[in-house]
Amino acid sequence: MKKTSIVCVLMLFSLVAVAGGNDDPLLLKLDVEQFEIADTGKHKPFSLEADAWLGYDLDKIWLKADLEKVAGKTEEAEVQLLYSKAVAPFWDWQLGLRQDFGPHRNQSWAVAGFKGLIPYFVEADAGLFVGESGRAALRLQFGYEIMFSQRWVLSPELEFNIHGQNNIELGVGSGLSDVQLGLRLRYDLTRKFSPYIGIQWSEMFGNSADFARRAGEQRSDSQFVVGVKFWL
Fold first, then answer.
1. What average pLDDT does the structure give for the chain?
2. Would you say residue 40 lies in a domain?
3. Taking 50 as the threshold, does the pLDDT of residue 18 lie above it?
4. Containing H/E element for 18?
5. Which range of residues forms the domain containing residue 109?
6. Structural domain includes residue 39
7. Residue 123 lies in a domain
8. CA 159 to each of CA 4, 9, 131: distance values in angstroms, whole numbers, following the listed order
9. What is the CATH number of the domain that holds 193?
10. Burial, 211: exposed, middle or buried (Cβ in 10 Å; 0-12, 13-18, 19+)?
11. With bands split at pLDDT 50, 70 and 90, how would you rate the model's confidence at 41?
């Protein structure tokens, strides 16, 4: 009986210790999805797409950054600061602010969106942006990973940008303004570091395409890219 009592007491203390442990620690992650150079002949644009988050299982603060430089000059830059709340398995609602930088692109937006997995493990990221003078925009992004082996991975990505108003200064038209399609083949040297090659294609539509033609620019563009993907 004494041995049984001692065992029961030890089990009770073990359960209390586990219950008192911190099973939802504060975590931090940096994820650089694209750190790449494109070969377009005359210039070699550099682009960076990264995000970082700090928080717990259900509540996080996200920082998203998107940058493109050509000949050492910033063509486009975008930063988002978001509060993210898990509302269902694999689904988060996000609210926050977005700031655009670059030539003729200094503009602030309020952001509301969601991020998660749709059927067949397709990653979805949707954001509604409301800016000055009643401007509004919608961005839809989808991504998928095709595993050829434990190290070789093909990643197709698709993005739609839709605007509510014409903005001649930025060359953006109302309706569907552009579609971007990327296809990148990476090799996972380690779980955290992967070089890749790929193709990035973009096409303008509607008024955006008309604005591009008037400015002497092409409505479509394709680029061969080389880069690395890593996370910390």
1. 89
2. yes
3. no
4. helix 2-20
5. 23-231
6. yes
7. yes
8. 64, 59, 20
9. 2.40.160.40
10. buried
11. low
The dihedral over CA atoms of 205, 210, 214, 220, expressed in degrees to the nearest 10, equals 20
Rg (CA), the chain: 23
Q: Is the pLDDT of residue 116 over 50?
A: yes
Q: What is the pLDDT of residues 53-99, one digit of tens each?
A: 999 999 999 999 999 998 888 888 999 999 999 999 999 999 999 99
Q: Under the phi-then-psi rule, with left for phi > 0, alpha for psi from -120 to 50, and beta for the rest, what region is 60?
A: beta
Domain count, the chain: 1
Do 80 and 62 contact (CB within 8 A), yes or no? yes
- 166 to 30, 144, 154: CA distances (angstroms): 35, 32, 36
- Strand 27-39 versus strand 220-231 pairing type: antiparallel
What tokens does 97 get? 């602010």
16 within a domain of the structure (yes/no): no
**Pairing, β 152-163 against β 136-143:** antiparallel
pTM of the prediction? 0.86
